Amino acid sequence: MEDGVNEYGLAAGLTFVYPKIKKAGLNAGMLVRYFLEKYRTVKDVLEKIKNLPIASAQTITLADKTGDMAVIECNPEKVKIIYPEENYNFIVSANNFNSREMREYKNPEGIDDWNSEERYRTAYEALKENKNNCSFEFAVNLLSGKYGFMCQYDRKKGADTVWSSIYILNENKIYRAEGNPSRKKFREDKRLKFK
Q1: How far is CA 133 from the centre of its chain?
Q2: Beta-carbon neighbour count of residue 129 at 10 Å?
Q3: 112 band by pLDDT with thresholds 50, 70 and 90
Q4: How many helices (H) and strands (E) does the chain have?
Q5: Using the 8-state DSSP alphabet, how is residue 148 labeled?
Q6: Distance in angstroms (rounded) separating the CA atoms of residues 41 and 95
Q7: How many angstroms separate the CA atoms of 54 and 184, rounded?
Q8: Which of 8, 11, 85, 144 is such that its CA lies 20 to 30 A from the CA of 92?
């Protein structure tokens, strides 16, 4: 419900954002599921997102086999699509809105956003510095905290990463760490049959 890839190689992953506005419609998990059940490409999703009733606040990161990618920052009142910066082939999101257009909807002070700004910066800087290295090993090292804070929560405070996924869409490969990737190994998951 929070992330996945479908048989056509469309991947979607969400990060929830504390909502300032709630309305009737599809919540974050239902949006991800809807996208993966109904669409084949990022372009397909982006053509439809502005016509869907959105109930909650979230970011949804999308990528497909063609290399197309985008982040959707959205809530019941506004949808902002973020594309990779010029000369870079990556996008980043964490549990908050990062675009100028969505700032008014950011998490209020005092809301636990799971270190979203720090995780966003860690991922952004590591990807920017390593823009020509999108290898599986790089992704494992990034998610396991070798470039800075990502998932190394203090377990004594009741927080931890439950799983982490890496999708290599152009090779039809899925890897998952069942638990915190700083302590658990990524293993290939071969259950999905790609078309």
Answers
A1: 19
A2: 9
A3: confident
A4: 4, 8
A5: S
A6: 24
A7: 35
A8: 8
What phi-psi label fits residue 25: left (phi over 0), alpha (psi between -120 and 50 degrees) or beta?
left
Is 82 exposed, middle or buried, given 0-12, 13-18 or 19+ CB atoms closer than 10 A? buried
35-83 per-position pLDDT tens digit? 999 999 999 999 999 999 999 999 999 999 999 999 999 999 999 999 9
pLDDT above 80 (res 143): yes
Place of tokens 């469309």: 10
- Token couple for 164: 């982490």
How many of the other CB atoms lie within 10 Å of CB of 103? 10
By the 10 Å C-beta count (0-12 exposed, 13-18 middle, 19+ buried), 153 is classed as: middle
Pairing of strands 173-177, 69-74: unpaired
Residue from 133, 138, 167, 185 nearest 65 by CA: 167
